[in-house]
Each structure stands twice: as structure tokens, then as C-alpha cells.
Design brief:
Length: 865
């Protein structure tokens, strides 16, 4: 701002600029001016566009504003557009003779820190993340906080795992140090809202002190995180950020947990997308979560997502969940009754955070009381005889009767959402409050009597006493009756059809009424705050009850879908086998009107006999659906859910990998094939002995010969690898079916297609053996391809089928090798020798073409063996 503009600054603009200068450029300052929130300059231009409000200009300054009471309407839009918002309120009433009122920022709202229910999504967490990178950048410290629920996590992992955590948790905001801006720009690729913190905050001693001061402990050993130095730094940064954003009341953040990767199944982001767990590929499509989320409470819905993101690999814990679902499944009346009570339970987790921060409303406290009553009713109802497993859950509820009683004895059941509206405290709770209320209401009654008396004295039958914030209490007289107004009345305002008058009696009554109102509001706020302070002492038991309700809700949801969709209880053990009878895809089967329309399929996988299944069949025959349904059944088993099948018995799985479909990543210069190879390499580099793989059409992104070769070598690698992960491999390359002749744990299966004359029927049944035809031309025909193209394709196919291409192999060490294999092996060595002689650094394009021609001749020789 130049000197001329500074001289022209009004006191209000000067105050605004002083406060605005304390915040970052992307922070919008909402500046209370009377009954409005105003924005100025660049902020006004931004708000005008985001909020679709009028932009004006006065004295060369842009302005845009909205009514004070509309904050909850406009604030979410600003936050969701990726802005930080500083809310600056008037801290005193305007006074005569005083140029400017005192103002200050009462709240700083950011995408990652908010408890505003219109910004938050009830079924999703809203995480703030912090990442600290050490100098070597091999490991990153990582921390997450949802201030609306009090959940606080940390971890210390290599950057690839942290990237997966970011995709899993999808934080609304990420904090990192300024000096590492370049690293994080490359690491995050602009996919998240970020905020840069000062470098000095990323200090271990500072962070450790922050954490032990907050939790009021001598060390962090009790949380089991003492060894995670980088994670502790990241967590300390989050607490610092809360203080910077004026969140000091955070008692609900009562614990911190490490993310224990080793205790959960590892599923990468590609697999979640490929299996359509949370989102369908189609906008109108249905994801798995849409089918299995029958939770009733927001807490339950959030927990279910957490269970899906981190499936269990502790068999004992998995079986406990299965057993509880079984009890609910076997006791429909108990199950139905619990669900009925769950409907009366509010979002206790987020209520607790509002209580701690001081943003809870009277009506929400009544909802908390009703929730606690429902918890008690659930506990009393469940009998040990009927449900031994469920009883253990409900018996772990903490006694919160004192809180419940204090709320209902203090707060009016029909209280409003806003304490300023008054009348929230129960009559009889405070003698002093009752006395002031009696005075207040007696004065209100006196005004009614005064109006009746003046109607008689003046003869103005329609005389009214009204009130507004500008005049106060006044007599309102119709213009046609103004000649009857007594001379001692003081005319205050003239309107088109009426006039407003004051009297000494009205002024005196008004002072007494306003004084009583202020005293009532002050006392009610004081009593309300005392109640909040009492509840704060019971935060931990309230949080525990919220977690138990969430768990019970999810397990009830599992029972509900099992009953509705005919799911069964799976069996899980420490073997390396997978046996599914009549498995179904839980999403696809819902699209069929009749329950008998969906064709179920069996599968058996084990490391000794059927480690890898090569599955062939035309497009639309059901290959991809079968691959996905098998992975989904495994996932559902490990989260404690019943599954769509008639029988399931499986060994523990610790990782699920998938490679299904591919798409270009043009922005990064990656082709379809490059994406496919990157994802496949990630799988092969991270498999374990308990991994389950589904691979679909590997190698299709390149030429047929290259594709077959790559697919062959991948399957061979999985078979010969000492880890021997069980694998489903779907392909159109029929040449791969020959592998079962040479590798004992590879078996061929295909989806049966019935051919009638020139037509085909997809039977969608998986049967033993290799598919003899791809039926690609038939699929093209039924898709509406012009008949000329179909006929020409059939002619070309006949010519191609005359050539019998054979794939080279490297398995001469197998026991069933024969002379033909030895010849193939010899020829293969010859090709390898030929390739090794080529120096690719100096070969010219013409020479390369010659070499390719020579290579083709070698391959032709091989095919004639």
C-alpha cells in the first residue's frame, strides 16, 4: 500500500489491515462490522466469486459481505474451496464517543481443522496430517489427527508406505517444513491441500515436550511410540498447529496410537480402486461399501471404513468378530432390537470434541443424554443366555449415569441450538435464576396490561407494543388513528402506514426487562459452562462408549447384510489353502432381480497342487468379475464379515495385490504399458508367502509376442519363487495354457461358452481345462460390428491359425523334460547368445531392422521344432 492510500485509511480499514497482516496470503479474514461479516480487497474478490455475493467498491477498496447469522451457510463453501478462514469478531459493544470497537480473531478454520458439522461429512473422518522427512529421506515421520473425533495416530515408514497411508486416509490438509518444499512438491504432486510450517518447529525435543505436556505424562512409553522419533516430531507439529489456530481446549485428544502395519493386511491403492471398494468406475455404479455399509450411526460408518482399510491378520481377532456376527445372525429379535436403539444414538465422538472445544449446543447435550439412555437400555436388554459374545461387548460400556442425570436436571429438553436464545436451564435448578426470570416475565406481563390500559385511555383499539433492536419497546399506531395519540407521547419514527411512539413508562420497563435479560443470559451461560466442566471430567468413558457403539454398529451391519443376502460364516486358519464353494460377487449379484440368476463359481488354490490358475475365456464371459469376487471374499473374511458363498475355508492372507485394466497417465508421460509394468513390478517386489494375487491381461499393452513373453516369465517367476503366492491369472493369450505341461502347480481353467451355430451363449461358469477359442469375433458380432468386417475377420483368422507359434521355455531342469524340450532349450540359448552380441548403445536404426529380421528367422526355426 502506497503512502497516499495509507493516509486515506479509515480507522476501521487500518484495524482490518493490522489483523490481516498476521495471517498468510491464502487466509480469508471475515471481519465483523455490526450485523455483517465483511471482506476487503483481494479477499472480497475471492469471496464474491466463491460465495456468489455482490462485489462493491468504495474509496478504491473492494468490499463483499454477508449477514453475521449466515456464517454457517458461507463458511463451508470457503473451506471446501481450499481456503483458511480467520473469523474476526467484535469483542465489545459500540460505544458513543469511541471511534472503533475492539476486534479480534476468535477462530481460525482450515480444511484440516474444523468441527463445523456443515463442513464435515458425517460418514468420513476429516484428518489433518503432518509429515517430517529426515536428511537421508529414507524414512518419513507421519502423524494424523481428526480434531472432530479426537483420533490421533503416528507412524514412521519409508516414503512408499506413507504415500499409501495418504491415499487410505485422504487428509484434508498436510503440514510440512518450509525447507523441504521441493521434496514435498514432487512427493505429493499437488494432490493435497498443504501448509508450510517454520523449520524450527520440526525439532524432536520440542515435539516430545509438547506431547508429554498435553497428555500430562512423564514419557511416551505408555503409548508404545517412544521409539518413533520422526513420528513424534510430526505429532508435535500437529499440536503446535492447533495452538497456532487457537485450538487450546483439546482434552478430547486423550491418547495417541501408532499405526501398526504388521498387524493388518496390506492392500495398496491400486487394489482398492481395481476392486471398486469405495468408488465404482462408473458415476452411476455401485461400490462394495454401498452394499456392506448398513451401519446406523456415523461412528459405525467411519469405523467400517477403517476396518476395510486395515483388515485384520490376527486369526483370533477375526474369529471373535465372526462369532459375534453369528450370534446376531442367530438371534434376529436381539439384532433388530439393538438396531432400533442404535437409531436413537447420536454422533457421540464428535459431540465430545465439541464439548472439549466449547462449541456444544444445549440441544446437542440433550441428544447426548438420549444416547446415553439408549446405551443403558442396550446393556440391560442383552442376556448372557441368549448371546454370550455380545454380552462381553455391552458389559464393557462405562457407567455415564452421572453425566446423563446432570444434563437432564440442568438443560431444558426442548432447548434451542443457540444458548443466546435463552431459556435453556430447567426451572428450579437455580433459585437466583428463577427469581430474575419471575421479574422478567412480570415486566412482560406489565407491558401487556399497560397496552390494554392505553387502549382504553386513548380509544385506539388496535394499539400494539412492539420491540426492535434500534428503538427498543414502542407503541405502534396506525396513521388513521394518530390524532388520538396523547400529547406526552414522543414520536420516534414514521412509516408509510404507521407511527412509532415512546413513553417514560415504556423506557423504564425496557431498562428493567433488558437488565433482567442480560442477567438471565449471564446466569444461564455460567450454569451451562459449569455443566460442561463436569462433563469434561468424564471424557475418556464417553469416548470408550462411543467406540463400543461404533463396533456394535458395524457388527450389526455385517449381520444385516448376511441375513439380507444369504452370506455364510467363513472359516479361517493358518494353512496356505483357499477353498470357496459357489462364490458370488456381492455387488454384481445385487443387479440381478432374481437371487438364482447370478451364476456362482468354485475355486480351490493351494501351494502344493494349484498355486496358480491360468483362466481363459472371451471378454464378457466373467473372468474379471471372478477375479474380483475372490479377492473381495478374502477381504470380507479378514474384516470379520460373512461372505457371499455356500462354503469358504481359507488360510490367512496378509497381502492382496491386483493388476486389472490399465489407463494412460499422460500427465506423467506414462503409457498404458508403462503404468501396467510399474504396477506389476510393485507387486512382484512386495509379495509374501501369504499373498494373494489377481492379475488380469498382463502384457496386453504391448505387441502380442512381447506380451506373451512377459506374461509367461511373470507366471514362471511366481511359480519358481520360494514364496509361492497363490495367484489367479486371467489372459487372452492361449499360448500360456501350455505352461501347465511343464509347471506342476499351474492349472488351466476357462469360462464355458456355449456355441449354437454361429451364435454363442456366455454360461459364466468356470470349468477345468483351457479354452479352445477366444470368440473375439463373436463378441464383436453381438456388439453390432458391421457384417463385412466380421466376415473379413473370420477369413484373416483362418490364415493366422495355420501358423503354430511355440513359446520358448527355460524349464529344462524339470523332471518331465523330453527331447523336444532339450531342443527348445538349446534354441533358446542360441537366441540369448545372439542377443548378447548386440550392442544396443551403438546399433543404427537400419542395423536394428536387420537384426530383427534375423531374429524372426530364428523364431521361425524354433516354431518348426
Amino acid at each position: 500500500m502506497n503512502k497516499k492510500n495509507k493516509k486515506e485509511e479509515t480507522p476501521l480499514i487500518k484495524q482490518y489491515n493490522n489483523i490481516k497482516s498476521k495471517y498468510t496470503e491464502d487466509t480469508i479474514l471475515l471481519f465483523q462490522v455490526g450485523d455483517f461479516y465483511e471482506t476487503f480487497g483481494k479477499d472480497a474478490i475471492k469471496c464474491s466469486k466463491i460465495l456468489d455475493i455482490i462485489l462493491t467498491k468504495r474509496s478504491n477498496i473492494y468490499l463483499a459481505g454477508f449477514p453475521y447469522h449466515s456464517l454457517n451457510t458461507y463458511l463451508p463453501k470457503l473451506i471446501q474451496s481450499g481456503h483458511r478462514v480467520a473469523i474476526c469478531d467484535q469483542l465489545e459493544e459500540p460505544q458513543k464517543g469511541k471511534n472503533i470497537v475492539k476486534r479480534g480473531v476468535v477462530e481460525l478454520v482450515t480444511p484440516g481443522i474444523t468441527i463445523n458439522e456443515k463442513i464435515l461429512q458425517t460418514k468420513f473422518n476429516n484428518f489433518l496430517a503432518s509429515i517430517h522427512v529426515n536428511n537421508k529421506k529414507k524414512k518419513l515421520g507421519f502423524s494424523l489427527l481428526d480434531i472432530s473425533t479426537g483420533e490421533f495416530f503416528l507412524a514412521e515408514e519409508k516414503k512408499e508406505n506413507i504415500l499409501q497411508y495418504l491415499k487410505h486416509f485422504n487428509p484434508s490438509e498436510i503440514l510440512f517444513q518450509k525447507k523441504e518444499k521441493k521434496f514435498f512438491n514432487q512427493f505429493l504432486k499437488g494432490k493435497y491441500y498443504t501448509f508450510l510450517m517454520e523449520d524450527w518447529i520440526f525439532n524432536y525435543s520440542f515435539a516430545y515436550e509438547k506431547l508429554i505436556n498435553h497428555f500430562q505424562t512423564n514419557s511416551l512409553k505408555g503409548f508404545g511410540i517412544d521409539d518413533l522419533k520422526l513420528g513424534i516430531i510430526a505429532s508435535g507439529v500437529i499440536l503446535s498447529y492447533l495452538h497456532d489456530t487457537q485450538y487450546y481446549k483439546i482434552k478430547h485428544i486423550s491418547t495417541i496410537q501408532r499405526i501398526k502395519k504388521e498387524e493388518h493386511m496390506w492392500i495398496d491403492d491400486f487394489t482398492f480402486k481395481n476392486l471398486e471398494i469405495f468408488h465404482s468406475f462408473n458415476k452411476e455404479g455401485v461400490a462394495l461399501i454401498d452394499v456392506i455399509d448398513k451401519t446406523i450411526t456415523p461412528m459405525g460408518s467411519r469405523l467400517l471404513k477403517n476396518w476395510i482399510l486395515f483388515p485384520l491378520i490376527n486369526i483370533l481377532h477375526i474369529k471373535k468378530r465372526h462369532d459375534i456376527v453369528q450370534e446376531l445372525f442367530s438371534n434376529p429379535s436381539i439384532h433388530k432390537w439393538i438396531k432400533k436403539k442404535l437409531k436413537k444414538i447420536s454422533d457421540i465422538e464428535r459431540m465430545i470434541s465439541k464439548i472439549a472445544i466449547g462449541k456444544i449446543s444445549p440441544r446437542e447435550l440433550i441428544a447426548l443424554h438420549q444416547s446415553l439412555i439408549s446405551i443403558v437400555e442396550i446393556q440391560k436388554k442383552i442376556s448372557h443366555k441368549e448371546s454370550k459374545k455380545i454380552v462381553k461387548i455391552v458389559n464393557s460400556f462405562q457407567n455415564c449415569d452421572t453425566i446423563s442425570e446432570q444434563i437432564i436436571q440442568t438443560i431444558q429438553p426442548d432447548s434451542s441450538h443457540h444458548i443466546e436464545k435463552g431459556n435453556i436451564i430447567v426451572k428450579g435448578f437455580s433459585k437466583k435464576l428463577d427469581e430474575i426470570r419471575n421479574l422478567y416475565f412480570s415486566k412482560k406481563e406489565y407491558l401487556e396490561k399497560l397496552c390494554s390500559i392505553e387502549q382504553l385511555n386513548t380509544g385506539i383499539q388496535n394499539l400494539k407494543i412492539r420491540h426492535n433492536n434500534i428503538i427498543g419497546y414502542y407503541f405502534e399506531v396506525k396513521i388513521s388513528k394518530k390524532h388520538k395519540v396523547p400529547s406526552h407521547w414522543i414520536r420516534k419514527q414514521t412509516l408509510s402506514n404507521s407511527e412509532r411512539y415512546l413513553t417514560e413508562e415504556l423506557k423504564n420497563s425496557e431498562l428493567q426487562i433488558l437488565n433482567a435479560e442480560q442477567k438471565i443470559l449471564f446466569l444461564e451461560k455460567e450454569i451451562f459452562q459449569n455443566l460442561i466442566n463436569q462433563i469434561l471430567k468424564h471424557i475418556k468413558p464417553l469416548q470408550k462408549n462411543a467406540k463400543i457403539i461404533a463396533k456394535l454398529d458395524v457388527l450389526c451391519s455385517f449381520s444385516t447384510i448376511a441375513l439380507e443376502n444369504n452370506y455364510i460364516k467363513p472359516k479361517i486358519n493358518y494353512s496356505f489353502k483357499l477353498h470357496i464353494k459357489e462364490g458370488r460377487h456381492p455387488v454384481i449379484e445385487k443387479q440381478f432381480q432374481s437371487k438364482t440368476s447370478y451364476i456362482p463359481n468354485d475355486i480351490i488354490l493351494d501351494k502344493s497342487d494349484q498355486q496358480i490358475l491360468i483362466i481363459t475365456g472371451p471378454n464378457m464371459s466373467g473372468k474379471s468379475a471372478f477375479l474380483r469376487q475372490t479377492a473381495i471374499i478374502i477381504l470380507m473374511t479378514h474384516i470379520g464379515c460373512f461372505v457371499p458363498a455356500t462354503y469358504v475355508k481359507m488360510g490367512l492372507i496378509d497381502k492382496i495385490f491386483s493388476r486389472i485394466g490399465a489407463s494412460d497417465n499422460i500427465s506423467l508421460g506414462e503409457s498404458t504399458f508403462m503404468v501396467e509394468m510399474n504396477e506389476t513390478a510393485n507387486i512382484l517386489n512386495n509379495i509374501s508367502k501369504r499373498s494373494f494375487l489377481i492379475l488380469d491381461e498382463i502384457g496386453r499393452g504391448t505387441s502380442t509376442s512381447d506380451g506373451i513373453s512377459i506374461a509367461w516369465s511373470i507366471i514362471e517367476y511366481l511359480h519358481e519363487n520360494s514364496l509361492k503366492p497363490i495367484t489367479l491369472f486371467a489372459t487372452h493369450y492361449h499360448e500360456l495354457n501350455k505352461m501347465s505341461n511343464f509347471f506342476k502347480r499351474i492349472k488351466n481353467y476357462h469360462f464355458y461358452v456355449k456355441k449354437i451355430d454361429e451364435d454363442i451363449i456366455f454360461m459364466r461358469k468356470l470349468i477345468d481345462g483351457a479354452s479352445k477359442h477366444s470368440f473375439g469375433i463373436h463378441v464383436a458380432k453381438i456388439s453390432g460390428m458391421p457384417i463385412k468386417i466380421i466376415h473379413r475377420a473370420q477369413e484373416v483368422l483362418k490364415k493366422i491359425e495355420k501358423k503354430n507359434i511355440c513359446i520358448p521355455t527355460t524349464y529344462n531342469h524339470l523332471s518331465h523334460s523330453n527331447n523336444k524340450n532339450k531342443k527348445n532349450s538349446l534354441m533358446f540359448k542360441k537366441i540369448i547368445h545372439y542377443l548378447n552380441k548386440i550392442d544396443i548403445n551403438y546399433i543404427t536404426p537400419v542395423e536394428a531392422l536387420v537384426k530383427i529380421s534375423e531374429m524372426k528367422n530364428l523364431l521361425d526355426d524354433l516354431s518348426n521344432f
